[in-house]
Amino acid sequence: MKLTRIALAIFTALCSASAIAQNAPASASDAMPGMNMEHHAPKPTDVSSTAAFQAADQKMMSGMSTVEYTGDADRDFVMHMIPHHQGAVEMAKVELKYGKDAKLRKLAKDVIAAQDKEIAFMNAWLAQHPRKQ
């Protein structure tokens, strides 16, 4: 259980880094005038997995950004966490499709199981707590 919590904490940090990166300037040269860093960027070795991760990231970020804030911290938390957790499931599925490391594939399966359980809990919570007008 402790390993799952650590893995989820790392995953959350990576998702946050992804969100920050999406707000970065269009190119590395924009970030540091006079320096062209684009040729130093690592090249993805598996374009298919990269595209799948990018699609999962975009879907998650879109889902989170379209949630209307209500002023109810509990509802706002759940409404943002559901697409965030769904993003984790989608990324884990990409790992299962393209990844080769047995430990990471096990982690991906654990992430899917944990996130699916938490998504179900949050959906049930929403059903039990209708939005107040």
UniProtKB/TrEMBL annotation:
Keyword match Methyltransferase: no
One Pfam assignment: DUF305
Keywords: Signal
UniProt xrefs under Gene3D superfamilies: 1.20.1260.10
The DUF305 domain, residue ranges: 36-126
Highest taxon of source: Bacteria
Annotated signal sequence range: 1-21
Name assigned to this protein: DUF305 domain-containing protein
Organism: Caballeronia hypogeia
